[in-house]
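Progress narrative, work stream C.
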Amino acid sequence: MSRADLDKKPGDVASMFDGVAARYDITNTVLTGGLDAAWRARTRSELSPRPGEMILDLAAGTSVSTVGLAKSGAYCVAGDFSLGMLKNGAKRDVPKVAADAMALPFGDGVFDAVTISFGLRNVADTAAGLREMARVTRPGGRLVVCEFSQPVFGPFRTVYIEYIMRALPAVARRVSSNPEAYVYLAESIREWPAQSELADLIDESGWRNCRVVNLTGGMVALHIAEKAA
Protein backbone atom coordinates (compact mmCIF):
# COMPACT_ATOMS: atom_id res chain seq x y z
CA MET A 1 0.00 0.00 0.00
CA SER A 2 1.18 3.55 -0.71
CA ARG A 3 0.78 7.03 0.67
CA ALA A 4 1.48 10.42 -0.84
CA ASP A 5 3.73 13.15 0.53
CA LEU A 6 2.98 16.83 0.90
CA ASP A 7 4.51 17.56 -2.51
CA LYS A 8 1.26 15.95 -3.77
CA LYS A 9 2.58 14.44 -6.98
CA PRO A 10 -0.61 13.57 -8.91
CA GLY A 11 0.44 9.99 -9.62
CA ASP A 12 1.22 9.33 -5.98
CA VAL A 13 -2.05 10.87 -4.77
CA ALA A 14 -4.11 8.95 -7.33
CA SER A 15 -2.37 5.68 -6.40
CA MET A 16 -2.97 6.35 -2.71
CA PHE A 17 -6.69 6.87 -3.27
CA ASP A 18 -6.84 3.73 -5.39
CA GLY A 19 -5.57 1.95 -2.28
CA VAL A 20 -8.29 3.32 0.04
CA ALA A 21 -11.17 3.08 -2.44
CA ALA A 22 -12.56 -0.27 -1.28
CA ARG A 23 -13.46 1.00 2.20
CA TYR A 24 -13.33 4.75 1.62
CA ASP A 25 -16.98 5.54 2.35
CA ILE A 26 -17.25 3.54 5.56
CA THR A 27 -13.89 4.88 6.77
CA ASN A 28 -15.06 8.46 6.27
CA THR A 29 -18.24 7.80 8.21
CA VAL A 30 -16.33 6.24 11.10
CA LEU A 31 -13.65 8.93 11.25
CA THR A 32 -16.18 11.80 11.17
CA GLY A 33 -18.69 10.20 13.51
CA GLY A 34 -21.26 10.30 10.73
CA LEU A 35 -20.89 14.05 10.15
CA ASP A 36 -19.82 13.50 6.54
CA ALA A 37 -23.48 13.07 5.50
CA ALA A 38 -24.47 16.39 7.09
CA TRP A 39 -21.53 18.16 5.42
CA ARG A 40 -22.55 16.76 2.02
CA ALA A 41 -26.14 17.89 2.60
CA ARG A 42 -25.08 21.44 3.41
CA THR A 43 -22.80 21.50 0.37
CA ARG A 44 -25.75 20.50 -1.83
CA SER A 45 -27.91 23.17 -0.24
CA GLU A 46 -25.36 25.93 -0.86
CA LEU A 47 -24.69 24.78 -4.43
CA SER A 48 -28.47 24.68 -5.05
CA PRO A 49 -28.47 22.56 -8.23
CA ARG A 50 -31.52 23.02 -10.46
CA PRO A 51 -33.24 20.77 -12.98
CA GLY A 52 -31.50 20.88 -16.35
CA GLU A 53 -28.27 22.40 -15.07
CA MET A 54 -24.86 20.89 -15.80
CA ILE A 55 -22.94 20.22 -12.56
CA LEU A 56 -19.37 18.97 -12.14
CA ASP A 57 -18.71 17.11 -8.90
CA LEU A 58 -14.92 17.01 -8.78
CA ALA A 59 -12.91 14.65 -6.56
CA ALA A 60 -16.19 12.74 -6.41
CA GLY A 61 -14.61 9.50 -5.23
CA THR A 62 -17.17 6.70 -5.38
CA SER A 63 -19.86 9.17 -6.50
CA VAL A 64 -21.88 9.25 -3.27
CA SER A 65 -22.04 13.05 -3.42
CA THR A 66 -22.86 13.05 -7.15
CA VAL A 67 -25.90 10.85 -6.63
CA GLY A 68 -27.15 13.27 -4.00
CA LEU A 69 -26.70 16.23 -6.34
CA ALA A 70 -28.45 14.44 -9.21
CA LYS A 71 -31.65 14.07 -7.18
CA SER A 72 -32.25 17.75 -7.96
CA GLY A 73 -32.82 16.93 -11.63
CA ALA A 74 -29.50 18.47 -12.68
CA TYR A 75 -27.16 16.56 -15.00
CA CYS A 76 -24.29 15.76 -12.64
CA VAL A 77 -20.89 14.42 -13.68
CA ALA A 78 -18.59 12.67 -11.21
CA GLY A 79 -14.94 13.52 -11.90
CA ASP A 80 -11.94 11.98 -10.13
CA PHE A 81 -8.36 11.15 -11.07
CA SER A 82 -8.42 7.92 -9.04
CA LEU A 83 -9.69 5.17 -11.33
CA GLY A 84 -9.98 2.93 -8.28
CA MET A 85 -12.44 5.33 -6.71
CA LEU A 86 -14.55 5.56 -9.86
CA LYS A 87 -14.58 1.76 -10.26
CA ASN A 88 -15.71 1.29 -6.67
CA GLY A 89 -18.64 3.58 -7.40
CA ALA A 90 -19.57 1.78 -10.61
CA LYS A 91 -22.95 0.71 -9.26
CA ARG A 92 -23.99 4.34 -8.81
CA ASP A 93 -25.89 5.48 -11.88
CA VAL A 94 -24.24 8.80 -12.69
CA PRO A 95 -21.78 9.63 -15.49
CA LYS A 96 -18.15 9.27 -14.40
CA VAL A 97 -15.06 10.83 -15.97
CA ALA A 98 -11.38 10.39 -15.15
CA ALA A 99 -10.41 14.00 -14.47
CA ASP A 100 -7.27 15.71 -13.15
CA ALA A 101 -8.25 19.00 -11.48
CA MET A 102 -5.26 20.76 -13.03
CA ALA A 103 -6.17 19.71 -16.60
CA LEU A 104 -9.90 19.08 -16.78
CA PRO A 105 -11.10 17.20 -19.90
CA PHE A 106 -13.96 19.62 -20.61
CA GLY A 107 -14.47 22.64 -22.80
CA ASP A 108 -14.74 26.23 -21.63
CA GLY A 109 -17.95 27.29 -19.89
CA VAL A 110 -19.58 23.84 -20.01
CA PHE A 111 -20.92 23.73 -16.45
CA ASP A 112 -23.37 25.88 -14.53
CA ALA A 113 -21.69 24.97 -11.26
CA VAL A 114 -18.69 23.07 -9.89
CA THR A 115 -18.19 21.58 -6.47
CA ILE A 116 -15.28 19.79 -4.86
CA SER A 117 -15.43 18.15 -1.43
CA PHE A 118 -12.32 17.20 0.52
CA GLY A 119 -10.34 17.15 -2.71
CA LEU A 120 -8.90 20.62 -3.29
CA ARG A 121 -6.43 19.94 -0.49
CA ASN A 122 -4.96 17.10 -2.58
CA VAL A 123 -4.33 19.13 -5.74
CA ALA A 124 -0.62 19.81 -6.24
CA ASP A 125 -1.24 23.41 -7.38
CA THR A 126 -4.35 24.77 -5.65
CA ALA A 127 -4.54 27.96 -7.72
CA ALA A 128 -4.17 26.04 -10.99
CA GLY A 129 -7.00 23.74 -9.97
CA LEU A 130 -9.24 26.68 -9.09
CA ARG A 131 -8.47 28.33 -12.44
CA GLU A 132 -9.37 25.13 -14.29
CA MET A 133 -12.65 24.91 -12.42
CA ALA A 134 -13.36 28.52 -13.41
CA ARG A 135 -12.47 27.80 -17.03
CA VAL A 136 -15.05 25.02 -17.38
CA THR A 137 -17.77 27.08 -15.65
CA ARG A 138 -19.96 29.61 -17.45
CA PRO A 139 -19.73 33.29 -16.45
CA GLY A 140 -21.82 33.81 -13.35
CA GLY A 141 -21.70 30.09 -12.55
CA ARG A 142 -21.21 28.79 -9.04
CA LEU A 143 -18.46 27.15 -7.00
CA VAL A 144 -18.72 25.41 -3.63
CA VAL A 145 -15.57 24.05 -2.03
CA CYS A 146 -16.09 21.82 1.01
CA GLU A 147 -12.84 21.22 2.84
CA PHE A 148 -11.37 20.58 6.26
CA SER A 149 -10.33 23.86 7.84
CA GLN A 150 -9.34 25.47 11.13
CA PRO A 151 -11.78 25.53 14.06
CA VAL A 152 -12.50 29.10 15.10
CA PHE A 153 -12.44 28.40 18.86
CA GLY A 154 -8.85 28.15 20.08
CA PRO A 155 -9.17 25.31 22.65
CA PHE A 156 -11.24 23.24 20.22
CA ARG A 157 -8.66 23.90 17.50
CA THR A 158 -5.91 22.46 19.71
CA VAL A 159 -7.93 19.32 20.48
CA TYR A 160 -8.85 18.97 16.81
CA ILE A 161 -5.24 19.12 15.63
CA GLU A 162 -4.25 16.52 18.20
CA TYR A 163 -7.07 14.24 17.03
CA ILE A 164 -6.16 14.70 13.39
CA MET A 165 -2.48 13.92 13.94
CA ARG A 166 -2.84 11.05 16.41
CA ALA A 167 -6.28 9.50 16.60
CA LEU A 168 -7.23 9.69 12.92
CA PRO A 169 -4.41 7.41 11.67
CA ALA A 170 -4.94 5.06 14.62
CA VAL A 171 -8.66 4.68 13.89
CA ALA A 172 -7.95 4.30 10.17
CA ARG A 173 -5.76 1.28 10.91
CA ARG A 174 -8.89 -0.52 12.14
CA VAL A 175 -11.19 0.24 9.23
CA SER A 176 -9.26 1.44 6.16
CA SER A 177 -7.91 -0.71 3.32
CA ASN A 178 -4.80 1.53 3.25
CA PRO A 179 -4.29 3.05 6.72
CA GLU A 180 -0.96 4.71 5.82
CA ALA A 181 -2.86 7.02 3.51
CA TYR A 182 -4.51 8.61 6.53
CA VAL A 183 -1.13 9.70 7.87
CA TYR A 184 -0.80 11.84 4.73
CA LEU A 185 -4.40 13.03 5.06
CA ALA A 186 -3.77 14.15 8.64
CA GLU A 187 -0.62 16.00 7.59
CA SER A 188 -2.36 17.69 4.66
CA ILE A 189 -5.22 18.88 6.88
CA ARG A 190 -2.79 20.39 9.37
CA GLU A 191 -0.92 22.24 6.59
CA TRP A 192 -4.04 23.54 4.82
CA PRO A 193 -4.56 27.35 4.87
CA ALA A 194 -7.11 29.02 7.11
CA GLN A 195 -10.50 30.09 5.81
CA SER A 196 -9.56 33.68 4.96
CA GLU A 197 -6.41 32.65 3.10
CA LEU A 198 -8.29 30.19 0.92
CA ALA A 199 -11.04 32.76 0.26
CA ASP A 200 -8.43 35.23 -1.00
CA LEU A 201 -6.89 32.57 -3.26
CA ILE A 202 -10.28 31.69 -4.72
CA ASP A 203 -10.99 35.37 -5.49
CA GLU A 204 -7.59 35.59 -7.24
CA SER A 205 -8.22 32.48 -9.39
CA GLY A 206 -11.11 33.41 -11.68
CA TRP A 207 -13.84 33.59 -9.05
CA ARG A 208 -15.38 36.47 -7.11
CA ASN A 209 -17.37 37.33 -3.99
CA CYS A 210 -16.11 34.33 -2.05
CA ARG A 211 -17.87 33.85 1.25
CA VAL A 212 -17.19 31.31 3.99
CA VAL A 213 -19.64 29.15 5.93
CA ASN A 214 -18.09 27.31 8.88
CA LEU A 215 -19.46 23.89 9.74
CA THR A 216 -18.89 22.04 13.03
CA GLY A 217 -17.14 25.06 14.53
CA GLY A 218 -14.83 25.48 11.56
CA MET A 219 -13.63 21.88 11.45
CA VAL A 220 -15.00 22.02 7.92
CA ALA A 221 -15.59 25.18 5.88
CA LEU A 222 -17.57 25.86 2.73
CA HIS A 223 -16.13 28.44 0.35
CA ILE A 224 -18.84 29.73 -1.98
CA ALA A 225 -18.09 31.92 -4.99
CA GLU A 226 -19.26 32.76 -8.49
CA LYS A 227 -17.44 32.82 -11.82
CA ALA A 228 -16.15 36.23 -12.76
CA ALA A 229 -17.58 37.67 -15.97
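Work stream C, second folded protein:
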Amino acid sequence: MSSFNLKGKVAIVTGGNGGIGLGMARGLADAGADIAVVGRNAEKSKAAVAELTSRGVRAIAVAADVTDKDAVGRLVERVASELGRIDILVNNAGINIRKPPHALELEEWSSVIDTNLTSAFLCSKAVHPAMKAASGGKVINIGSMMSIFAASFAPAYAASKGGIVQFTRACACAWAADNIQANAILPGWIDTDLTKRARVEVSGLHERVLARTPAARWGGIDDFAGIAVFLASPASDFVTGTAIPVDGGFSIMG
Protein backbone atom coordinates (compact mmCIF):
# COMPACT_ATOMS: atom_id res chain seq x y z
CA MET A 1 0.00 0.00 0.00
CA SER A 2 1.34 3.42 -0.93
CA SER A 3 0.33 4.89 2.43
CA PHE A 4 2.92 2.67 4.11
CA ASN A 5 5.67 3.26 1.55
CA LEU A 6 8.79 4.89 3.01
CA LYS A 7 10.96 4.83 -0.10
CA GLY A 8 13.01 8.01 -0.29
CA LYS A 9 12.63 8.73 3.42
CA VAL A 10 15.47 8.83 5.95
CA ALA A 11 15.16 7.63 9.54
CA ILE A 12 17.41 8.12 12.55
CA VAL A 13 17.07 5.32 15.11
CA THR A 14 18.90 5.86 18.39
CA GLY A 15 19.85 2.61 20.05
CA GLY A 16 19.16 1.08 16.65
CA ASN A 17 21.91 -1.53 16.72
CA GLY A 18 20.01 -4.04 18.86
CA GLY A 19 16.82 -4.86 20.72
CA ILE A 20 13.63 -2.94 19.98
CA GLY A 21 15.55 -0.31 18.02
CA LEU A 22 16.86 -2.88 15.58
CA GLY A 23 13.42 -4.46 15.26
CA MET A 24 12.00 -1.06 14.30
CA ALA A 25 14.89 -0.31 11.95
CA ARG A 26 14.23 -3.60 10.14
CA GLY A 27 10.60 -2.64 9.60
CA LEU A 28 11.48 0.85 8.37
CA ALA A 29 14.08 -0.57 5.99
CA ASP A 30 11.65 -3.16 4.61
CA ALA A 31 9.25 -0.28 3.89
CA GLY A 32 12.01 1.47 1.92
CA ALA A 33 13.54 3.97 4.36
CA ASP A 34 17.26 4.64 4.56
CA ILE A 35 18.52 4.28 8.13
CA ALA A 36 21.05 6.01 10.37
CA VAL A 37 21.82 3.61 13.22
CA VAL A 38 22.96 5.48 16.33
CA GLY A 39 24.76 3.54 19.04
CA ARG A 40 27.96 3.42 21.06
CA ASN A 41 28.91 -0.19 20.34
CA ALA A 42 30.74 0.01 17.03
CA GLU A 43 30.67 -3.73 16.34
CA LYS A 44 26.92 -4.01 16.94
CA SER A 45 26.29 -0.95 14.78
CA LYS A 46 28.45 -2.36 11.98
CA ALA A 47 26.48 -5.63 12.05
CA ALA A 48 23.16 -3.76 12.07
CA VAL A 49 24.18 -1.63 9.10
CA ALA A 50 25.25 -4.71 7.16
CA GLU A 51 21.90 -6.36 7.83
CA LEU A 52 19.88 -3.28 6.90
CA THR A 53 21.91 -2.71 3.74
CA SER A 54 21.20 -6.29 2.71
CA ARG A 55 17.51 -5.35 2.73
CA GLY A 56 18.12 -2.98 -0.17
CA VAL A 57 18.42 0.41 1.51
CA ARG A 58 21.22 2.76 2.44
CA ALA A 59 22.35 2.56 6.06
CA ILE A 60 25.08 4.25 8.07
CA ALA A 61 26.36 3.85 11.61
CA VAL A 62 26.84 6.94 13.75
CA ALA A 63 28.55 6.81 17.14
CA ALA A 64 27.18 9.60 19.31
CA ASP A 65 26.46 10.42 22.93
CA VAL A 66 22.79 11.37 22.63
CA THR A 67 22.87 13.04 26.05
CA ASP A 68 25.34 15.63 24.73
CA LYS A 69 23.91 18.61 22.84
CA ASP A 70 26.95 19.17 20.64
CA ALA A 71 27.26 15.47 19.79
CA VAL A 72 23.60 15.37 18.80
CA GLY A 73 24.12 18.41 16.60
CA ARG A 74 26.99 16.70 14.82
CA LEU A 75 24.89 13.54 14.46
CA VAL A 76 22.08 15.39 12.73
CA GLU A 77 24.48 17.27 10.46
CA ARG A 78 26.16 14.03 9.39
CA VAL A 79 22.89 12.25 8.63
CA ALA A 80 21.58 15.18 6.62
CA SER A 81 24.88 15.38 4.71
CA GLU A 82 25.33 11.65 3.98
CA LEU A 83 21.71 10.57 3.51
CA GLY A 84 20.33 13.85 2.18
CA ARG A 85 17.42 14.55 4.51
CA ILE A 86 15.74 13.61 7.81
CA ASP A 87 12.11 12.52 7.86
CA ILE A 88 11.80 10.13 10.80
CA LEU A 89 13.31 10.10 14.29
CA VAL A 90 13.00 7.12 16.62
CA ASN A 91 14.10 8.02 20.14
CA ASN A 92 14.89 4.56 21.46
CA ALA A 93 18.12 4.94 23.45
CA GLY A 94 17.56 3.78 27.00
CA ILE A 95 19.03 2.26 30.15
CA ASN A 96 17.76 1.10 33.53
CA ILE A 97 19.28 0.84 36.99
CA ARG A 98 17.20 -1.46 39.18
CA LYS A 99 17.19 -0.13 42.73
CA PRO A 100 14.43 1.13 45.05
CA PRO A 101 14.27 4.91 45.50
CA HIS A 102 16.06 4.92 48.86
CA ALA A 103 19.02 3.01 47.38
CA LEU A 104 19.37 5.02 44.16
CA GLU A 105 22.20 7.53 44.03
CA LEU A 106 21.74 10.94 42.41
CA GLU A 107 24.31 10.08 39.75
CA GLU A 108 22.36 6.93 38.88
CA TRP A 109 19.08 8.84 38.73
CA SER A 110 20.62 11.47 36.47
CA SER A 111 22.16 8.86 34.18
CA VAL A 112 18.80 7.19 33.55
CA ILE A 113 16.89 10.45 33.11
CA ASP A 114 19.52 11.89 30.77
CA THR A 115 19.75 8.75 28.61
CA ASN A 116 16.02 7.99 28.42
CA LEU A 117 14.39 11.43 28.46
CA THR A 118 16.85 14.26 27.91
CA SER A 119 18.24 12.51 24.82
CA ALA A 120 14.75 12.45 23.31
CA PHE A 121 14.46 16.21 23.86
CA LEU A 122 17.89 16.93 22.37
CA CYS A 123 17.39 14.74 19.31
CA SER A 124 13.86 15.98 18.66
CA LYS A 125 14.89 19.60 18.96
CA ALA A 126 17.85 19.01 16.65
CA VAL A 127 15.85 17.39 13.84
CA HIS A 128 12.96 19.85 13.95
CA PRO A 129 14.48 22.36 11.49
CA ALA A 130 15.13 19.64 8.89
CA MET A 131 11.63 18.21 9.25
CA LYS A 132 10.05 21.65 9.06
CA ALA A 133 12.06 22.44 5.93
CA ALA A 134 10.85 19.18 4.39
CA SER A 135 7.21 20.17 5.17
CA GLY A 136 6.71 17.33 7.64
CA GLY A 137 8.16 14.54 9.70
CA LYS A 138 7.58 11.80 12.23
CA VAL A 139 8.90 11.55 15.78
CA ILE A 140 8.50 8.19 17.51
CA ASN A 141 9.44 8.07 21.18
CA ILE A 142 9.88 4.80 23.05
CA GLY A 143 8.15 4.79 26.40
CA SER A 144 7.34 1.69 28.40
CA MET A 145 4.60 -0.04 30.35
CA MET A 146 6.30 1.90 33.17
CA SER A 147 4.74 4.96 31.57
CA ILE A 148 1.48 3.53 32.93
CA PHE A 149 2.50 1.44 35.91
CA ALA A 150 5.20 1.72 38.54
CA ALA A 151 7.67 -0.73 40.04
CA SER A 152 9.58 -0.51 43.29
CA PHE A 153 12.84 -1.37 41.51
CA ALA A 154 12.62 1.22 38.70
CA PRO A 155 11.95 4.74 40.05
CA ALA A 156 14.19 6.62 37.61
CA TYR A 157 13.16 4.46 34.67
CA ALA A 158 9.45 4.93 35.42
CA ALA A 159 9.91 8.68 35.83
CA SER A 160 11.78 8.92 32.53
CA LYS A 161 9.19 6.88 30.64
CA GLY A 162 6.27 8.79 32.13
CA GLY A 163 8.07 11.92 31.01
CA ILE A 164 8.42 10.53 27.50
CA VAL A 165 4.64 10.38 27.12
CA GLN A 166 4.13 13.97 28.24
CA PHE A 167 7.05 15.20 26.14
CA THR A 168 5.53 13.43 23.13
CA ARG A 169 2.23 15.20 23.68
CA ALA A 170 3.97 18.56 23.98
CA CYS A 171 5.80 18.00 20.69
CA ALA A 172 2.57 16.89 19.01
CA CYS A 173 0.89 20.14 20.03
CA ALA A 174 3.85 22.40 19.24
CA TRP A 175 4.70 20.95 15.84
CA ALA A 176 1.30 20.13 14.37
CA ALA A 177 1.45 23.32 12.32
CA ASP A 178 4.70 22.05 10.79
CA ASN A 179 3.01 18.77 9.77
CA ILE A 180 5.19 16.84 12.24
CA GLN A 181 3.45 14.03 14.08
CA ALA A 182 4.85 12.82 17.41
CA ASN A 183 3.75 9.57 19.00
CA ALA A 184 4.99 7.19 21.66
CA ILE A 185 5.18 3.40 21.77
CA LEU A 186 4.88 1.67 25.12
CA PRO A 187 6.61 -1.72 24.96
CA GLY A 188 5.56 -4.43 27.36
CA TRP A 189 7.86 -7.23 28.43
CA ILE A 190 10.10 -7.82 25.42
CA ASP A 191 12.87 -10.38 25.10
CA THR A 192 15.99 -8.18 24.90
CA ASP A 193 19.38 -8.02 26.58
CA LEU A 194 17.93 -5.49 29.03
CA THR A 195 15.13 -7.80 30.16
CA LYS A 196 17.40 -10.83 30.23
CA ARG A 197 19.25 -9.05 33.03
CA ALA A 198 15.94 -8.20 34.67
CA ARG A 199 14.99 -11.87 34.76
CA VAL A 200 18.20 -12.56 36.63
CA GLU A 201 17.86 -9.61 39.01
CA VAL A 202 14.10 -9.85 39.76
CA SER A 203 13.05 -13.21 41.16
CA GLY A 204 9.95 -14.75 39.58
CA LEU A 205 9.65 -12.07 36.89
CA HIS A 206 9.43 -14.50 33.98
CA GLU A 207 6.56 -16.46 35.52
CA ARG A 208 4.62 -13.33 36.52
CA VAL A 209 4.93 -11.86 33.01
CA LEU A 210 3.60 -15.01 31.36
CA ALA A 211 0.75 -15.29 33.86
CA ARG A 212 -0.45 -11.72 33.24
CA THR A 213 0.09 -11.45 29.47
CA PRO A 214 -2.95 -12.65 27.45
CA ALA A 215 -0.66 -13.49 24.54
CA ALA A 216 1.13 -15.85 26.98
CA ARG A 217 4.60 -14.97 25.71
CA TRP A 218 7.29 -12.34 25.87
CA GLY A 219 7.39 -9.99 22.91
CA GLY A 220 10.10 -10.15 20.27
CA ILE A 221 11.92 -7.25 18.68
CA ASP A 222 10.28 -7.91 15.31
CA ASP A 223 6.89 -7.27 16.95
CA PHE A 224 7.83 -3.58 16.59
CA ALA A 225 8.36 -3.53 12.82
CA GLY A 226 4.72 -2.93 11.95
CA ILE A 227 4.02 -0.18 14.50
CA ALA A 228 7.22 1.57 13.42
CA VAL A 229 6.14 1.60 9.79
CA PHE A 230 2.63 2.80 10.68
CA LEU A 231 3.84 5.70 12.84
CA ALA A 232 6.57 6.66 10.34
CA SER A 233 4.36 6.59 7.25
CA PRO A 234 1.57 8.69 5.71
CA ALA A 235 -0.87 6.11 7.11
CA SER A 236 -0.59 7.91 10.47
CA ASP A 237 -0.77 11.51 9.27
CA PHE A 238 -3.85 12.18 11.44
CA VAL A 239 -2.46 10.33 14.46
CA THR A 240 -0.43 12.44 16.88
CA GLY A 241 0.17 12.71 20.62
CA THR A 242 -0.75 9.08 21.23
CA ALA A 243 0.91 6.45 23.44
CA ILE A 244 0.34 2.98 22.01
CA PRO A 245 1.05 -0.13 24.11
CA VAL A 246 2.72 -3.02 22.30
CA ASP A 247 2.55 -5.53 25.11
CA GLY A 248 0.51 -8.61 24.17
CA GLY A 249 -2.32 -7.29 26.34
CA PHE A 250 -0.30 -6.94 29.56
CA SER A 251 -1.62 -3.45 30.31
CA ILE A 252 -5.30 -4.37 29.98
CA MET A 253 -5.18 -7.03 32.67
CA GLY A 254 -6.33 -6.22 36.17
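The chain has a mean pLDDT of 96. No further action is required on this item.
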